[in-house]
Amino acid sequence: MPEPSHRRRMLVLSICCMSLLIVSLDNTALNVALPSMQRELHATTSGLQWTIDAYTLVLASLLMLAGSTADRIGRKRVFMAGLVIFTAGSLLCSLAPNLELLVVFRMVQAVGGSMLNPVAMSIITNTFTDPRERARAIGVWGAVVGISMAAGPLAGGLLVESVGWRSIFWVNLPVGLAALLLTLRFVPESRAPRPRRPDPVGQVLVIALFGSLTYAIIEAPAASLTEVLPFAAVAVAALLALLLYEPRRAEPLIDLRFFHSAPFSGATGIAVSAFAALGGFLFLSTLYLQNVRGLDALHAGLWMLPMAVPTLLCAPLSGRLVGSRGPRLPLLIAGAAMTVSGLLFALFEAETSNVTLFLGYVLFGVGFGFVNAPITNTAVSGMPRAQAGVAAAVASTSRQLGQTLGVAVIGAVLAAGIGSSPYRDTFVSAARPGWWILAACGAAVLILGLLTSGRWAHRTAERTAERLETAEVRQPVGTSG
Question: Does residue 446 register a pLDDT over 80?
Answer without folding.
Answer: yes
